């Protein structure tokens, strides 16, 4: 699965695997979904709910590293380089502030394009 796909699934809820009779499955540990009347997932609400459950303060509204940590995803430079490649980043994939800011903005744009309701606070 792609890194963006993991972010999207953590926020929107991963598709449930087919049920196999007599099989035991672990409960789905994804963030809860908050769906406005139009059916879009309220990304702000999902992230705020996840942040409320964390003991660590995370600046997920502007930091790709903290956003990934909030979603319990590996925020290593290797994964951010892979995400940068997936999303078409053309600059140096060196973990710079420029790359990380671009990644956060692009992730929010793609979440909105995939049916997420993303506030201006998260898009900035």
Overall shape: it is globular
- Secondary structure class reads mainly alpha
Subunit organisation of the chains: single chain
Distance between the termini: 27 Å
Largest sheet: 2 strands, parallel
Rg over C-alpha atoms, rounded to the nearest angstrom: 15 Å
Low-confidence regions: 22-37
In the sheet with the most strands, the strands line up as 1-2
Secondary structure tally, helices: 6
Describe the structure.
The chain has 124 residues and is mainly alpha-helical. It has one domain. The protein has helices spanning 3-12, 43-53, 64-70, 77-87, 97-113, 120-123, and strands at residues 41-42, 116-117. Helix 4 (77-87) packs across helix 5. The longest helix has 17 residues, at 97-113.
How is this structure best summarized?
By secondary structure, this protein is mainly α.
List keywords for this structure.
124 residues; mainly alpha; two-stranded parallel ribbon; 6 helices; globular
List the helices and strands and how they pair.
Elements: H1 3-12, E1 41-42, H2 43-53, H3 64-70, H4 77-87, H5 97-113, E2 116-117, H6 120-123
Parallel strand pairs: 1-2
Helix pairs in contact: 4-5
């Amino acid at each position: 699965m792609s890194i963006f796909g993991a972010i999207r699934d953590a926020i929107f809820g991963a598709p449930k695997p087919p049920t196999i009779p007599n099989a035991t499955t672990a409960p789905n540990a994804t963030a809860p979904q908050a769906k406005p009347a139009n059916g879009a997932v309220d990304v702000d609400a999902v992230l705020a709910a996840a942040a409320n459950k964390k003991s660590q303060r995370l600046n997920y509204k502007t930091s790709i590293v903290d956003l990934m940590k909030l979603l319990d995803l590996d925020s290593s430079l290797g994964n951010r380089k892979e995400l940068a490649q997936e999303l078409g980043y053309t600059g140096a994939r060196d973990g710079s502030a420029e790359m990380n800011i671009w990644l956060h903005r692009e992730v929010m744009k793609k979440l909105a394009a995939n049916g997420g309701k993303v506030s201006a606070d998260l898009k900035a």
